[in-house]
Amino acid sequence: MEREQQAPRPVVTPPLANGWQWQSRSRASGSEGQQDHAPPSGGNPEVESVNGNDTSEDDDDDLSDDISDDYDSDASEKSFETRKMNKWFKSFFEVLDTLSVEQINEQTRQWHCPACKNGPGAIDWYKGLQPLMTHARTKGSTRVKLHRELAALLEEELSRRGTSVVPAGEQFGKWKGLREGTDREIVWPPMVIVMNTLLEKDEDDKWKGMGNQELLDYFGEYAATKARHAYGPTGHRGMSVLIFESSAVGYIEAERLHRHFITQGTDRNTWQLRRVPFLPGGKRQLYGFLANKEDMEMFNKHCQGKSRLKYEMRSHNEMVVIPMKQMSEDNQQLNYLKNKVVKTEQRSKAVEETLGVVTQRLRETMEENQFVRDKAKEKHLEYEQEMKYQEEFFHNQIESIHKITDAKEKEFEKLLQEERSKARSFDVDSGTTEDRRLRKEHVQKFIDGQVKDVAEFEAERDELIRAHEEKKIKLKKEYMEKVVEVEKELDAALTLLMKKHKPDTFQASSSS
């Protein structure tokens, strides 16, 4: 299978599709020189011929006879050499036989087309075999079959000599990379076959061998999940298997153990070609390799039903390569996220530290502010108490004034009543009639004057009280306005003070 995949690619690709069906000229039976631009439809390019300017229609028939007479359809060694000796190609291939591969591949060497001999293209030179090969494969007007035969013979000749001509349209000097098919089938879950696990025969003449846990312990550093052994009619067959996890990581572990066996020279080839079952001292040498389908069939040779070891043949790319690529991408993403988390944690820590400092300063500031507020409150209470004392003091003074005024008013009323009482008790009945009249008029006049004077007193007193109340209202208004003005001044001063001591806006720097 590998030989088929490594087989050399064809040196010359098949002729271009419809490459020979160039627009051609044909002679119409009715008028000379009329052109037919449509290529022949449905025709066989090796049978159908097109008239040229200097070649008759009989040329290809003669050439066809020359080719078919010497051509053997089985393409054997004898027929190839015989076809080379055709009268059209003989001299060309005789010259080619004298050249080395390096000389053949020289791009400066010039060639005539042997199929165009005695024809319109006989004098054309082709630098290197590539242009000549292209000409022979794509010639579409005259001697089509002869040119195709030249291309086939030249391709076969170069292939036999271990060289080739770069196909038309390809760049000279390209490299060949890996084969297209890089995938392969693998046993799934991954398994490693361990050979020579026999120990000795028992009393029934049947072989005993290594146990499951013992095999796992021997290869404990490779993380196999299970171990199984093959048994047959004679007991333990000396063939064991380590089963790994059904994942890309499990396959890598199995492959790592496989390479370990290769490194120490106890792999499949050694087991098959030059095994040494026993080491000096009598210990058995274990051999191991990755399991393939044949190994699994051999392991299950004497197993039936549920005792058969179950496995599948799966695509290596699907089960290992693609998951490993995905794991690589996930790891890159994980590393990115880890780095991002570390940066975020560092930034959070810096912000937390800064926030702690700011919080401590804020707490201290709040304590200071609370102390100031307490002091201000104490002062305010002192001021209120002082104002209260002052109000009481002034209130007492006013009350005292009011009492003095009331006493004066009472004394004044008492005086008026006494004078009136004197006037009324005055003796007006003694003396002459005239005297009595005059005394009565005097008393009445006194009383009337007193009444009038009291009325005027009361009116002026009411006016004084009204003016006094107005003054008090005016004073209270001016006082409240001044209080409001003082409060506004305090508010403006506090606003300026807060603006002056306003804290800066906290921003975590990007470097943090």
Automatic annotation (TrEMBL):
The keyword Coiled coil applies. The keyword Coiled coil applies. Residues 20-33 have a biased composition (Polar residues). Residues 183-297 form the XS domain. Residues 113-151 form the Zinc finger-XS domain. One of its GO terms (biological process) is regulatory ncRNA-mediated gene silencing. Residues 1-79 are annotated as: Disordered. Pfam families: XS, zf-XS. Residues 55-74 have a biased composition (Acidic residues). Residues 454-496 form a coiled coil. Keywords: Coiled coil, RNA-mediated gene silencing. Belongs to the SGS3 family. This is Protein SUPPRESSOR OF GENE SILENCING 3. It comes from Urochloa decumbens.
